[in-house]
Amino acid sequence: MMLALCFAELGTMLPKAGGPYAHVMRTFGPLPGFLILWGYVVLISGPFWAFLSYTAALYIFQPFFPDCEAPDNAVKLLAGWIMITFVVINCVYMKYVTKIQTLLSSTKVLALLIIIASGIVNFTQGDTENFEDIFEGTTKEPGEFAVAIFYSIFSYGGWQVMTSLMEEVKKPEKDLPRSVFIAMIAVITKYILANVAYFTLMSPSEVVASNAVALVYIHRFYKPLTVVISVFVALTSIGALNASIMGHSRLIFAGARVGHMPTILGMIHKKYLTPWPAIFLLLAWGLTMLYTGGVTDMMEFISLFSTIMGIAVVSSLLYLRITKPKLPRPYQTMLFVPVSMFIVNIAVLVLAIYQKPHKMGIGLAILFSGIPIYWFGVLWNPKPLPFKELTESLTVFMQKILMIEKTS
Predict the structure, then answer these.
(1) Each residue of 285-318: pLDDT tens digit?
(2) Pick from 246, 237, 234, 231: nearest CA to 98
(3) Rounded distance, CA 243 to CA 108, Å?
């Protein structure tokens, strides 16, 4: 929540599409900004879309396989269909997207309320044996503790997308801080209560081992509700995917407008006024991650870059506080908030790298591979004439095929 308040302050100061990318570029220059854009696309957008669509498909299939795991290939095929379907909806039926999002978000609330209410029933009936020595066997190693925080960053993440749509918010100075306080408190409370409910019928080892905790729990509580919770959780994941498609594509769109992405990625459809090329690029990467990556890898890469992005955004906020104290700030959080978040995120990043140097090293290598790409795509000018002619002809060809145009 404290990190979200830092994002809110920068978002109201610099209400531009692109969110963290726009803030870091404005503060530290084009290369750091490009690395945030590159990392967001490669380490968050693709893995996140893949994870959400996979989760939705898993919860749809799992009720048909109550005593074993659903076939992975079938789950991935359905996940790909879900991802493609909601990309089409975001491209063609944008006016219905917000209405769909409201419906999908309500299913999350209903699912959590059912789980929390059942947990209260179990608790009052004396199902508390799993709370005895609940932290038994918990590690005290700082590195493993940091990795645990990494997974919690993933679990409570996704709110960063709120600053990617700033140009479409009518009163960001009021709406953004208000949404942070209301949403973050509600989400944290609901998820803590849901986890408490799980432990009334499941041991810590069972919770860790399960791929579909909510289904296992509700199956033990009241079997007929299994299908209901399965549908609700699937719709919840689809809702998060739908919001990500809206927000993440705007990040690439913002990058293309300042020359950090190919020109075509900054174009929109003539009729539907949505950034088709940016959405299609993320769709291709999301499908690639879905069919080649593991779930744990996705979570770790997302958490790694989320931590790095948090450090970059908080550094931007502190830098602007020092160098431009008179810059208008419609919303300003207390100073200890960004300072503490900077220290905590640095500590978590260092300990996670120490604990998992190979996996974290791969993630960092992917992030910093953006430096030669930045040199090739942005700094290398003038490019050879044949290369320019090829890219221009491809751009014109795609404009004709997709019926897209530059924005004014």
Answers:
(1) 999 999 987 767 777 888 888 889 889 989 998 9
(2) 246
(3) 14
Rounded Cα–Cα distance for residues 251 and 276 (Å): 13
pLDDT at 203: 86
Q: Say how far apart CA 7 and CA 391 lie, in whole Å.
A: 36
Q: Residue for token digits 């209901």?
A: 228
Amino acid at 131: F
Q: Taking Cα atoms as reference points, which of 139, 140, 143, 138 lies closest to residue 347?
A: 143
Distance separating alpha carbons of residues 105 and 338, to the nearest angstrom? 30
Give the length of the chain: 408
Rounded Cα distance, 84 and 73, in Å:
17
Strand partners, 406: 267
What tokens does 107 get? 């299913």
Return mean pLDDT, the chain. 84
Supply 230's token pair: 């399965």
Residue 136, SS3 per DSSP: coil
Report the alpha-carbon distance of residue 37 to residue 28 in Å, rounded. 13
Q: How does DSSP classify residue 385?
A: H
What's the pTM? 0.84
SS3 per-residue string spanning 62-97: HHHCCCCCCCHHHHHHHHHHHHHHHHHHHHHCHHHH
CA angle, residues 91, 93, 98, in degrees to nearest 5: 105
- Compute the distance between CA of residue 239 and CA of residue 235 in angstroms, rounded to an integer: 6
End-to-end CA distance of the chain: 36
> What kind and span of H or E run contains 364?
helix 357-368
Query: pLDDT above 90 covers what percent of the chain?
Result: 21
CA distance 20 to 34: 11
H/E segment holding residue 406: strand 404-406
Q: Which residue has the tokens 């945030």?
A: 36
CA angle (307 as vertex; 349, 146 as ends), nearest 5: 40
State whether the Cα torsion 2-188-14-258 is positive or negative.
Answer: positive
Residue 148's identity, in one-letter code, is A
pLDDT 10s digits, 357-405: 888 899 899 999 999 999 998 888 888 888 888 988 998 998 888 888 8
CA atoms within 13 A on the CB side of 339: 5
